[in-house]
Amino acid sequence: MESAPFFCFCDKHKEDEMYFDRGELRHIEKVLRLRPGEIVAVFDGSGMEYRVRLREDQEQRLKGEIISKACIDREPETSLHLVQGIAKGDKMDSIVQKAVEIGVKAIHPLAAQRSVVELDERKAGKRVMRWQEIAREACKQCRRNQMPLVNPMRGINEILQIIGQTPAIMLYEEEHKLGLKQLLQTEEERFTGQEIFILVGPEGGFSHEEAEAARDRGVHLVTLGPRILRTETAGLVAASLILYHFNDLG
User: Fold this and answer.
1) C-beta contacts of 21-25 below 8 A and 24+ residues apart
2) Over pLDDT 90: what percentage of the chain?
3) What is 79-245's CATH superfamily?
4) Which helix (H) or strand (E) holds 199?
5) Which residues does 114 contact at the CB level (< 8 Å), separation at least 6?
6) Pairing with 160, which of 61, 83, 100, 107 sits 20 to 30 Å away (CA)?
7) 127-176 pLDDT, tens digit each
8) Domain ranges of the chain
9) Residue 225's Cα: distance from chain center in Å?
């Protein structure tokens, strides 16, 4: 069985050669024990896929000789942005991983009013770097060749400015009338083939002020049904339902 593809940054390959970073080399040499002459699959996060033969350079370090390359589109036609309220513990790790597998295009960590986790700028930057690495590993596992971007941590007002006029959906437990299914049906023409933002609160949900600020900016507040889902479940369910509705999943 062919191993999962390896990753190479776009600026680390040129013409017919590519060089792997330290982490990938360790995986190739120490974990899988691959040797010069073996052929592996590689992606660079931009949609390009390569068949690469392993070679040694003059210092006996492994590099790749590109045999063939192709641009293969595995992305959903509907581009989803997951705005995720920062969750406790390692929940964010799992959310990022699963969102990438499902097909989310970008992840926006949200420092919501009710977020239990509070991080200074340095720690927030480190967390984002970790989540980006998790996204990269998830791409390798699910053979997704375009890497979703994990954006810097922001507050609700910054997020709403970024959303602008783009279609956006907030999952709000105090909304009892408008369901996601109904919204997708009534707004299908407007949403088809577009970017869509999904806003998910932290463990305590969105505050009334955050919900009203979103509503005032044209964000649709919806319910997912009679049961309140955990923060690590809600966004993934919503993303799956949206992609299913627009014929990407299932």
Assistant:
1) 25/61, 25/62
2) 60
3) SPOUT methyltransferase, trefoil knot domain (3.40.1280.10)
4) strand 195-200
5) 85, 201, 202, 203, 204, 205, 206, 207
6) 100
7) 999 999 999 999 988 888 889 999 999 999 999 999 999 999 999 999 99
8) 6-71, 79-245
9) 25
pLDDT of residue 118: 79
100: tokens are 């990438």
Question: CA quadruple 83, 77, 99, 227: dihedral positive or negative?
Answer: positive
Architecture of domain 6-71: Beta Barrel (2.40)
pLDDT tens digits for range 49-96: 899 999 887 777 788 889 998 988 888 999 999 999 999 889 999 999
Closest Cα to residue 28, out of 58, 70, 56?
Answer: 56
**C-alpha distances in Å from residue 75, one per residue of 93, 241, 250:** 22, 16, 14
* DSSP character at residue 146: B
152's enclosing H/E stretch is none
